[in-house]
Every structure is written in C-alpha cells, then in structure tokens.
Design a protein that fits this description.
mainly alpha; about 80% helix; globular; MetI-like_sf
Length: about 220
C-alpha cells in the first residue's frame, strides 16, 4: 500500500496517456472505419452502388485483419510504421497500431448498423428525387445514428483494452504502469489501482454512450 501511495504522482499521468491514446485512435480509426463500413454497405448486392469486385476485396481485407490478436498485430505492423517514420515503440506507435486494429472492427460494426435502415426509407428518398450519394452519406447514417453510437461505444471499451496491451511496447498509460510497477514488482495494490481506474473509464464511457443512444432513438 505504501508503494502505491508513492506511485500516485505517476498514476495520473498514466491515466492521461491512456485517454490520449484512446482519443487519437478513436479519431483515426473511427474515420477510416466509417469509410470502410460505408464501402461495404454501399457495394454489397442490392445496395446503392452494388459492385461485387469492390465488395469482395474490402470484405476479404476486413476479414483478414479483424481476427488478428492485437498483441500479434503490434509486431506485424512495425515495418509499416517505420515506413511512416514512426518508431516501433512508444505512444505514437501504439496509436498507429490501435488505429489500424480498430478501423477494421469499426468498419464491420458500421456496415452492420447501416443495414438496420429499412429499405422503405431508402425507396421513399429515391422516389422523392434524392441522389444515391446523398442517401448514402446523409440519410443512411442519420437513420442509423442510435445504433452507430452504441457500436462506437463498444469500440471505445475495446480501445481501453488495447491501450493496456500496448504497455508491452513501452507506450505508457495504465497498461505499462500496471505491468512495470505492479506485475513485475509483485505489488497487487498497484495493479488493482490501474484496474479500478480502467473500470471507471469503461463504466463512464458506457453510461454516456447508452444515454446518448437513448436520446437519439427517442427522437
């Protein structure tokens, strides 16, 4: 317990580093994943821009990368990171790796949530003269906004887990704090302090996501 008290000045910066990684990864991975999800939705058979070749290629790419465990993906994307002049360790590389890992999961979630839009809504918009591009980029995302919020909330929770794993590459954050000062020092107090903060972060994100989704769905 005394060791935990001594480490409290390091715990709060570690929490800030975790939030930093989550925020940047959500921005980069969220935007890329949304575009991937739109592509999957738009090009599938019977959709707005059906294209079997494009859908097949994007679908295979997503199915290839999405199941890879994050701890393995970290090592696999190191050469790609160096191509962008990003060192293979540290917080910048963690954001790079987490963004890649999350964008494929987000792409699949976005696709599934866009598919919840009723075909009748799209047909009515087409009958009213709306272009396919307008329907794809404005109507469909707006109609599926509630489920999308829940989907992104789920991803944020997964990002918290990824930032913890990123502690093995000296990325900072609560993961490295628990690994270096708790696990390796056989100090469960330090480990559980990081666990409790992670639980609070997840609970806060889940509460906000659920509340926002309920508000949107009631409109």
């Amino acid at each position: 317990m005394d060791r935990l008290i001594d480490l409290l000045p390091d715990l709060w910066p570690a929490t800030a580093e975790t939030l930093y990684m989550i925020t940047l990864s959500l921005v980069f991975g969220g935007i890329a994943g949304f575009l991937i999800g739109l592509a999957l939705y738009a090009t599938r058979a019977g959709s707005l821009f059906p294209n079997r070749v494009v859908f097949g290629i994007v679908n295979v790419i997503v199915n290839t990368f999405r199941p890879i465990p994050f701890i393995i993906l970290i090592g696999a994307v190191q050469p790609l990171a160096r191509a962008f002049s990003i060192r293979g360790t540290g917080i910048e590389f963690a954001v790079f790796a987490i963004s890649i890992a999350s964008m494929f999961a987000i792409g699949r979630i976005v696709e599934q949530n866009l598919l919840t839009v009723r075909p009748g809504v799209i047909e009515a918009a087409r009958a009213a003269g709306a272009s396919r591009s307008r329907i794809l980029f404005r109507l469909v995302p707006r109609e599926s906004l509630g489920p999308l919020v829940l989907g992104y909330t789920f991803i944020v929770v997964a990002l918290v887990d990824m930032t913890a794993v990123a502690g093995v590459i000296a990325a900072g954050g609560l993961g490295q704090f628990a690994l270096v000062n708790g696990f390796r020092q056989f100090n469960p107090w330090v480990t559980w302090a990081a666990v409790i903060i992670i639980i609070l972060l997840v609970q806060g994100v889940q509460f906000l996501g659920n509340a926002l989704a309920r508000r949107i769905l009631r409109r």
